[in-house]
Design brief:
Layout lengths: L1 H8 L2 E5 L5 E5 H9 L3 E10 L4 E13 L3 E3 L5 H7 L2 H21 L6 E4 L10 H12 L6 E6 H6 L1 H13 L3 E7 L6 H6 L4 E4 L1 H4 L6 H16 L3 E4 L5 H9 L4 E2 L8 E2 H6 L2
Parallel strand pairs: 4-6, 6-7, 7-8, 8-9, 9-10, 10-11
Antiparallel strand pairs: 1-2, 3-4, 3-11, 3-12, 4-5
Helix pairs in contact: 4-5, 5-7
The structure holds ligand C2E and calcium ion (3 copies).
């Protein structure tokens, strides 16, 4: 309904970019950007803290806008979720990411890639087949793909989420719980949920050095992950001190500006 309404009225959505400046994102503009391939995949390294080597990468969407330059996803993902554009956007994101991975694989760099999945797409008929079809097309092994889902997405419809994600897990894909600790969480989903990674939200990691309670919570989340026999990934690691603390706590992976910023996929893969 929102999709049709926005289409009719040519309504402009008021949104805030991550830089907190007001940005008006017109629906038609975003639809055209998705259809005409003006979105780009950027990749950010995920660092293996135990082996001290590159452990993977996360795919992050950017919109290369004619006038505005690179628009961050916070300025268009919420609009795409409200209007149904998230469905073609996800199709684009999965395909474009795996296309870049195929290039990396052919060059001998078989790194796992993490792709963000919005809860909205769980309702989409054939979403599982779409993901599997893309893996097949680009000849990327399912074991190399991690699907990142937020706690809020899971809690919106735990039964449906579990059903969709279990089917994907059964095909060999891995599931990460994104922004862990920042959402409306319930331990009950951890009990049945087929996750293989917990990504500790940046809001805890960024305060670790100055706030002992934040540090204790990070430690507790790492221990929780290990009790569940899954990997802990810390997000938003911006300096060496934080990285060292995380290593001391036994955290498995780290992601953040200290290890590398998101870069255009071609640049990232050429640098491997
Ligand atoms: P996220 O999945 O939590 O992604 C991590 C965000 O933190 C990214 O912002 C990344 O650039 C940023 N970041 C990484 N390291 C640091 C750091 O050390 N310090 C700080 N301050 N920030 C750091 P980005 O790229 O703006 O993405 C924002 C959100 O948009 C993502 O949050 C994700 O939820 C969503 N998103 C991005 N691409 C897609 C996509 O293709 N599909 C869907 N459904 N969502 C996407
Ligand atoms: Ca993510
Ligand atoms: Ca996250
Ligand atoms: Ca986030």
């Amino acid at each position: 309904v929102a999709f049709a309404r926005a289409q009719q009225s040519g309504e402009h959505y008021a949104l805030y970019s991550s830089h907190e400046e007001r940005a008006e994102v017109p629906f038609d503009d975003l639809r055209d950007a998705i259809l005409n391939n003006r979105l780009e995949v950027h990749l950010q390294p995920i660092w293996d803290l135990r082996k001290q080597c590159l452990g993977g990468m996360e795919s992050l969407a950017r919109w290369n806008h004619r006038e505005r330059g690179l628009v961050p996803p916070d300025a268009f993902i919420p609009l795409s979720e409200q209007t149904g554009l998230i469905v073609p956007l996800t199709r684009w994101s999965v395909n474009a990411t795996l296309r870049h991975c195929a290039t990396a694989f052919k060059a001998g760099h078989g790194l796992p890639v993490s792709i963000n999945l919005s809860a909205r797409v769980f309702h989409e008929q054939g979403i599982v087949e779409q993901v599997l079809g893309a893996l097949n097309l680009w000849e990327v092994p399912p074991e190399s793909v991690v699907l990142e889902v937020t706690e809020n997405a899971i809690m919106e419809d735990p039964v449906l989420s579990a059903r969709v994600l279990e089917r994907l897990r059964d095909k060999g894909l891995r599931i990460a719980i994104d922004d862990f600790g920042a959402g409306y969480a319930s331990f009950s989903y951890l009990k049945q949920f087929p996750a293989s990674e917990l990504k500790i939200d940046r809001s805890f990691v960024k305060d670790m050095l100055v706030d002992p309670r934040a540090a204790q919570l990070v430690r507790a989340m790492i221990d929780l992950a290990h009790h569940l026999k899954i990997d802990a990934v810390a997000e938003g690691v911006e300096d060496k001190e934080t990285a060292d603390r995380l290593i001391g706590m036994g955290c498995d992976f780290g992601q953040g500006w200290y290890f590398g910023r998101p870069q255009p996929a071609d640049t990232f893969i050429a640098s491997l």
